[in-house]
Amino acid sequence: MEKLRGGKIKVGLADTTFARADMAAYAMDEIRKKFPKMKVEFVRRTVPGIKDLPVECKLLYEQDKCDIVMAFGMAGKEQVDKMCTHEASLGIQMTKLMLGKHIIEVFVHEDEGKDEADLLSIFEDRSRKHAINAILIATNQQELVKMAGKGLRQGKQHAGAIGAAGKTGVQK
Length: 172
Fold this sequence. Notes:
- This protein has one domain: Rossmann fold.
- The chain contains 5 helices and 4 strands.
- The chain has helices spanning 23-34, 53-62, 79-99, 116-139, 141-145, and strands spanning 8-16, 39-47, 68-75, 103-109.
- It has a 4-stranded parallel beta sheet with strand order 2-1-3-4, sandwiched between helices.
- It is globular, with a radius of gyration of 17 Å.
- The relative contact order is 0.17.
């Protein structure tokens, strides 16, 4: 973490008014809980809809000088909502490539949950797990390497790895 301004990390959070849960609040809470000794500054920006997220993420990097940025959004149930979410995701991918920096995309589809309680648990679980991913990708990416191939999932229970630990599955 020494590469970050004397041990301090600046986390940008871009969310929307359309989402049905405060995903950024879950992420900030998780970062505070899991990394209590880390000096974290949060910069939060809220936009009306999911297609506004790519430019807001770019601004968090360029204007606010964040070390890592997270984009939170929800896709509604309708086909037009799914299309808008796909377009927003493509915009975020373009922004990542343009900046050469990671943006942790945390999207939830409204029809993922079987009811509102299940949907809320998906919002919270995905936001919290990706918050940890964001900190690790910005500060200690080797910790993520240790998690490779484990079948980890954000939003639901982990799927689990296939095969014995340490096996690559590569035929010799």
